[in-house]
Specification:
Distance between the termini: 33 Å
Number of helices: 15
Mean pLDDT: 86
Number of strands: 0
Bound molecules: cytidine-5'-monophosphate
Shape: globular
């Protein structure tokens, strides 16, 4: 059935499924890497971010070369000769860097469950930015499905009693407030940066790979500054690649792949559908961790949440009319 769809529609569904697979593998690999006990220093998260940006830039450059018979002309024309177009990508890059730092502040001041659950609000901020910046129109049932999706992911990630006991930290009210503000700001920044990137991709002619190189270049610069500021001392002592092992490189590769797939999803589908794909992958990775890793015991709350996520996905895609009206204001 999918094969009879037009090329762009096929890419839309294919990219969404690849995103589900990529996010699921990333979550499972990260979970697995945390359970490994290794001698020596742990790898620096800030360095993994920089490595993923380099890998992303390298892959996109290779793709642009292949598409253009290995000529450097297009890259020079699009990136060096059009500085204003390139500068447009500094905005989402700076916002994503701030977002990563905000999430770090949030995790240091909130327990992991509150953090994960509150961050689901980004589903709604993304929808609001899609409506206000792209002129997308959502029907009543689509809005309802977004509320179901948010509630569903919240319940799926609801901590079990044993998790609450093991994670109980003494967090002061002011620390909780700081954490909550940080995660709420990250929700706004996630929605805005994603929709801004979507607007650039859909309203200009540049290829998705060129746009990703531009985003990656700024991401690399800001990420590198972040690494020096946070971990400069440790980098000077033991180098950028301290503590790297096969699992670390797998996480880096999956993160870089994520950047590529997210860009394709934003181009051929949209940020709202990206939210559905990542919500489904939270469900899939939790189920895999139950069946394979055996480190999770699903509760009734989990099944209720899973049902809501699946129902929301059907509800959203069934209301076709307003979605097909969705137009990008130019
Ligand atoms: O939580 P959220 O969905 O906003 O996270 C998006 C992530 O995808 C960010 O970490 C951002 O750096 C990354 N991204 C990317 N390439 C793009 C768009 C987003 O690496 N083209």
């Amino acid at each position: 059935m999918v094969l009879s769809l037009p090329h762009s529609a096929r890419l839309k569904y294919l990219s969404l499924w690849v995103l589900v697979l990529q996010t699921t593998s990333l979550v499972l690999t990260m979970r697995y890497s945390r359970t490994l006990k290794e001698d020596g220093p742990r790898y620096l998260a800030s360095s993994a971010v920089v490595s993923a940006e380099v890998l992303k830039i390298f892959t996109c450059t290779l793709l642009v070369f292949i598409e253009n018979n290995f000529s450097v002309q297009l890259l020079k024309e699009e990136i060096v000769n059009k500085p204003m177009e390139t500068m447009k990508l500094a905005i989402p890059a700076v916002i994503y860097t701030l977002q990563n730092n905000l999430l770090y502040v949030a995790l240091s001041n909130l327990d992991a469950a509150t953090y994960q659950v509150t961050y689901q609000l980004k589903i709604l901020t993304t929808a609001l930015f899609s409506v206000s910046m792209l002129g997308k129109r959502l029907g009543f049932y689509q809005w309802l499905s977004l509320l179901f999706l948010m509630a569903g992911v919240t319940l799926v990630q609801w901590p079990t009693e044993s998790e609450v006991d093991s994670e109980q930290k003494i967090l002061s009210a002011s620390s909780q407030f700081v954490g909550l503000m940080a995660v709420l700001m990250a929700c706004v920044s996630s929605g805005f940066a994603g929709v801004y990137f979507e607007k650039i991709l859909k309203e200009t002619k540049q290829s998705v790979w060129v746009r990703n190189i531009q985003l990656g270049l700024f991401g690399f610069v800001f990420g590198f500054i972040g690494m020096i500021v946070y971990d400069g001392q440790r980098v000077r002592q033991s180098g950028i690649f301290q503590g790297y092992n096969t699992i670390t490189w797998t996480v880096v590769a999956l993160q870089a792949l994520g950047g590529l797939v997210i860009a394709v999803v934003i181009k051929y589908a949209d940020n709202i559908l990206k939210g559905f794909a990542t919500s489904l992958s939270i469900l899939v990775s939790t189920l895999i961790s139950y069946f394979l890793l055996k480190d999770f015991n699903p509760t009734r709350v989990f099944f209720l949440g899973a049902g809501l996520v699946i129902a929301a996905t059907f509800l959203y895609s069934n209301e076709r009319k307003p979605a097909s009206n969705s137009a990008i204001k130019v």
